[in-house]
Every structure is written in structure tokens, then in C-alpha cells.
Amino acid sequence: MSQDSNSTPSLQDIIGHAKEYGFVFPSSEIYDGLQAVYDYGQNGVELKNNLKAAWWKAMTQLHENIVGIDAAIFMHPLTWKASGHVDGFNDPMIDNKDSKKRYRADQLLEGKAEEYAAAGQADKGQALLAEMGRLLSAEDLDGVRELIIAEDIKCPVSGTTNWTEVRQFNLMFSTQIGSVAEDSSVIYLRPETAQGIFVNFLNVQKSGRMKVPFGIAQIGKAFRNEIVARQFIFRMREFEQMEMQFFVRPGTEMEWYDKWKETRLKFHQAIGLPADKLKYHDHDKLAHYANAAVDIEYEFPFGFREIEGIHSRTDFDLRNHQELSRKKQQYFDADLDENGKPFGNYIPYVVETSVGADRLFLATFCNAFTREMVGEGDKVKERIYLKLHPALAPIKAAVLPLVKKDGLAEKAQGISDSLKSTFRTVYDDNAAIGKRYTRQDLIGTPYCIAVDYQTMEDDTVTIRHRDSMEQERVAISELKAKIGQAVALERILEEI
Question: What would be an example GO MF term here (predicted)?
Fold first, then answer.
């Protein structure tokens, strides 16, 4: 018997479990770590790779008109001038004079709006956010400071409202390129992956004979010198993005924008995120490149937050690159318009889908973390396991001999070896089998294969299912097909 324990995990529960079971570690921990930088452990890297593989296949395998690239992190510095990052990639920064702590002004105001919402004053919170958006759009930083003071927002550390002025802080990391310091030039670590796609637009279009509409997908690292990085891996200085830029005929962008909104929500549900923990959030303040923007948000332990953005970027990027590089970024459209004439040359508009791989990892991990009470009477106890989609689990099956003697260990090792070419399998003969089941539950392994004395007689094994803890007897010859089908990424793609 099992039942939910009605205990929602806190972020500290998630952080502790992620570290203890090899999912995420603080970077350089032996040197006391580096703020807002994390390493993925042996199980974390498998889960993250599975998420990336699911996204990649959902984009490039399910759509014949989407292809992938892998652009370099270093780019010509004029790239970031054309994109607007050199002049406009800033966050409003404010310091508390008493605590000497630095904050993002917009996050302080967003936190106050959340307090209003929690107190049943959602309209007041929305009004506050609207006023903040107006002030930031007008670049009225003095007004932002006055709004913080008027709302009596205190520093969480000092408890005072002794704030400095608000000033803009550019988020790009810069470095030098060149063998001799005096001959070097300043370049930037990319703050996003999209520009690597835009500067390769014509390379891909011409070499692949791509016809608009078509998309270019990419997974890659990006870097932002966040003022206040917080909430574990939700906001980091080094992170990974999964982006797709979809090039469309001008005038059709909103149709594609709506289509990608729907398609991307289906993806998140297909990997196991429940519909009631997902929602759309339309942007009140649009980025400089967008004429429409929406976030897909997931309900983390700290509230609803963005995991993916869908943006209609117009022709902002390609047009700016064309002007600064003096290289035409145009497409000749031979299709006929309503008058029977070719659409001709134009700069395509772009609809972007951009997922934070680390945020998606965190959402998946939070959603999978499950507590339930099992047992009867005075034997009821709490059980914790990761209810991951079988296709995403770091390990698909664990092979466990009941005991090490009488040939059971060798039989189990042979079964494990025979399955490794189809899906990731581990062999474990250390400790009582109940403890081994628990170990696999804690890292989300969907199937445990128990090898016992009956196995030696009839070549059958017991499969134990993670979520229900039910067991079934299966022939060894059926394992590869039975488990292989359940853990294939195909199961996710079928739901999109």
C-alpha cells in the first residue's frame, strides 16, 4: 500500500538530493566553490544528455525543414554590436549601503509583486509590474529607485531601505584574443546561442537548399555575468541553451508564433511535466528585437518561472547583420503571391524557441522528486524516489543477483552485458536486495531485474517496476524488447 505524503519538496530538498546521488555538484567545491557555477555528476549528465537528445530529435527528426548546427562560442565582436548586446544587454543594479549586498532592481520589485499575489492582492502586484516595465522601457532608473523606496522594499540582509542609485550593468564576459597582449582584441563569451545561427543563415540555406519556412536548431553553452545568480541551477553564469530559429515569410510570423507556442507546450508535457504545473506568461515588456513574446513557465518550489521563451523576432537580427557586415542576408522566394507573381527577395522574419537546458533539467528533477508513505499499520514508512520518464532516466535497468554465490552473480553479469548495447544498464550485487532497490529508486531507475535460483532453472527473471513496486516474471530472452521499447525516446516523440 502506498499513498502520497502531501509533502512538497523544498528547493533545499532538491539541492541535497541532487548532490548526494550524483546529479549536480557545486563547481570547485574543494576550494569552497564558485558562486552560480555547477558541475553535473555521473547521473546528472546522463539525465541532461537525455533531455537534450529528446529536444534535438523533436526538432530535427520530427521536422524535415529543421536542421542543426554547432556554432563556435567565440564570434567576431561586431556580431554583438549588431545584435544590440554591446549597447543594450544590461540589468538594473542597486546596492544596499548597509549590507554592501548587490541586487537586481527588477527582481526586488518582482519579489514585492509576488508578496502582493500571495496576500490576495494580485491586481496590486500586476500594477507594480506594469509601472516597473514602463520605467525600465523609458530607462528611468531614478524612477525605479523611487519605486523601490515607495514600496518600502528592504534589503533581506540588513533590513534597511538605504539604497544606492540604480545603474545599468552589462552582462557580457569579455576576454582577449591574440598571442601578444598589445596586439590582442577584445572579444566576448557569447551571452546567447542565437547569433551563431543568424550569421550562418545563408550558409545553411544555400548548402542545404532550404526553402522558407525552415529552421536551424542548436544546443550550446552561453555565459552571462549575472548580478544576482540564485535558485540553484535556475540562474547561472555558465549555462546551456537549446534554441531553434525558424525563418518565415514576413506577414506569416504570428501564425508560426502561435503554432510553435502549442508545439513547445506539448513537448514539455510529453517529457512528463504535468499540465497543471505549466502555463503561458505573455511579456509585458518586449525585448528590443521582438514584436511578440511569451514564456512557458513551470511551477518550481519557488513559484512559476520561465523554462522556455517563444519570441517573434521580426527581421531585427538579419537586418542588423546585413547593415553592419554589408553582406546581404536576403532570400529569394520563388513561390507566387495572390497576384501570381514571385514573392522575390526579402529578409526573412524569425520565430524563436529558446529552452534553458539547465532550467528544464531542474523542472524535470523537481517534478520527479516523489515522497510517499508505504506499508501498513506500524510498518508505514516514507519512500523517496525519482519518478522520471523511463526514456530520460540516467540508468534504464539495474541487474541484481539475489546472492553472489551458486552462479547467480555470473548469470546476472551476463544478462547485464547482453543489454548494454541497447540501453544503459548497471550490475549491482552489494548489500541486501531491498537496499539495492532503494538505491535505484533514488536515482530514478525505472526497472530492476532480479536474478534468483529460479532463473538458473528456467531462464526467467523478476522485473520490479519503480513507480508501483509491482513485480512480474519475464523470460530473459524478452528483456531487451520489453524494456527497450519502454525506455526509447520514441515514446516521448510519439506524444508531441
Answer: glycine-tRNA ligase activity
